[in-house]
Amino acid sequence: MRVGVLTGGGDCPGLNAVIRAVTKSLIHHGHCEVLGIADGFEGLMGQTPRTLPLAWTQVSGILHMGGTILGTSNSANPLKDEATLAQVGRNVRALGLDVVVAIGGDGTMSLAHSLRQVGLACVGVPKTIDNDIALCERSFGFDTAVATATEALHRVESTANSHHRVMIVETMGRHAGWLALEAGIAGAADIILLPEIDYDLQAIVQRCREREQRQRYTIICIGEGAKPRGGALTVREHVAGSPDPVRLGGVGHVLRQQLQPHLKSEVRATVLGYVQRGGDPTPFDRVLATRFGHHAAQLVIDGQLGRMVTLQNGGIGSVEIAQVANTQRTVPPGHELITVARDIGVCFGD
Ligand code: F6P
What we know:
The chain is built from 10 helices and 13 strands. The longest helix has 22 residues, at 142-163. Strand 9 (235-238) and strand 10 (246-248) form a beta hairpin. The N and C termini lie far apart (55 Å). The chain is an alpha/beta fold. It has a 5-stranded mixed β-sheet, with helices on both faces. The protein has helices at 15-28, 82-95, 106-114, 142-163, 178-186, 201-213, 251-259, 283-301, 321-324, 336-343; strands spanning 2-7, 33-37, 51-53, 99-104, 122-126, 166-171, 191-193, 218-223, 235-238, 246-248, 267-271, 307-312, 315-320. The chain has 2 domains: 2-140 and 281-323, Rossmann fold, CATH 3.40.50; 146-277, Rossmann fold. Bound molecules: 6-O-phosphono-beta-D-fructofuranose. 6-O-phosphono-beta-D-fructofuranose binds next to strand 10.
């Protein structure tokens, strides 16, 4: 079999570990030929497909590396018009690909599902630091991002303490609060604001004032998709033509402006941004990514196409890509971690 491998959407620590595991398993265990596709689906959209050889040597020594050796793109949309779609189909046939292993988030899974119409069979591997892919309890990259955001919160705490300030730290996560929630708990935030729980400014003001009396500093961890009750999302930009056109970011600064007039302490905001996506994966993510890559190869070898690898109840399995396309896994407001945090005094702004 001839198998293509691509990475789509925003990058994420652990992508190279998946590329390595899927390639090695397909070569060693499945006796397949493996071809890398450059820059996600974009590599299949031009007159000439852009590919990279993926042999044993190309994937040796990359396990620990952040980013993706294949490159990625998060605005490539092969469905943008009929001509592009037809070109993708021609390129897949010209390359002689029997199947493509698509490593990406919900946008990539939706594209992988739609591309059946031009004869492209895919196997999916879930990737995101946001941990928001449906039917998958943990995606690789999330653990690394939580570790990075936790360290940032920890560092911000000492300066907050010295200056007696309210410090806001904004994490990524789009419409899901997993990253803000876990980093907020691990980084000892006093207030955690999630996209799933609209905040009431007065509740935050009250908690900060209480802390002004006692500890004299407050740490707030806010997910980029959080918004005030009855208010709007903070949108950084709209990217026309992208499968994921709404880019979030900046709510930390918005909250700073809302909060400052009500407090004696100075309020400062830090947006962590791409720092959370970069760098080398943690050992947990290297192992999870290796398990995911191995299982994707097994699905290819077994002819179980159109499926995405998952982690459920700690075990590796798979679901139909159709089941996860265009869906997101958000934090249920009654989640055990929210209860734990509330019971130790964390304020969720509600
Ligand atoms: O990787 C997912 C994500 O990190 C989101 O949390 C964030 O909103 C988005 O990527 C930003 O990505 P970009 O600016 O590359 O579109």
